[in-house]
Amino acid sequence: MPQTADLLQGTLDMLILKAIVNEPQHGWAIALRIQQVSKNVLQVGQGSLYPALHRLEYRGWIKAQWGASENNRKARFYSLTIAGKKQLVAELENWQRLAGAVNLVLAEI
After folding, report:
1. Which residue from 3, 44, 100, 104 has the highest number of Cβ atoms inside 10 Å of its Cβ?
2. Residue 45 DSSP SS3
3. What is the pTM of this model?
4. Which domains does the chain show, CATH number per domain?
5. What are the C-alpha distances in Å from 82 to residues 6, 77, 86?
6. 109 SS3 class
7. Are the C-beta atoms of residues 87 and 17 closer than 8 Å to each other?
8. In the chain, what are the helix, strand and coil shares in percent, each to the nearest 5?
9. Are 62 and 78 a contacting pair, CB within 8 Å?
10. Is-contact 84 61, C-beta < 8 A?
11. If DSSP codes are grouped into helix, strand and coil, which group holds residue 4?
12. Which helix (H) or strand (E) holds 76?
């Protein structure tokens, strides 16, 4: 089963941004959402997730605030900033272009 190390560079950032586009999520919920939506193909480990979250926050694409998780534990909830929404659109467009190019090559080989 592919882990985050198997993903193309930058893909994890796009997946995280997409996972929180509709509502703020804490780290564990983000990882779980990616795993569930990918039908258990993608599993994001803590060693990849939290550095990515810090990187996205540093870039100004997400913001974090403390809140209570579903089991009433203190957790940081991440949400998109305006810059993050713009970045997600750019990432999705780039992904479509890349996937289309790969599909063209695969169709010819």
Report:
1. 44
2. coil
3. 0.88
4. 4-108 (1.10.10.10)
5. 29, 16, 6
6. coil
7. yes
8. 60, 15, 25
9. yes
10. yes
11. helix
12. strand 74-80
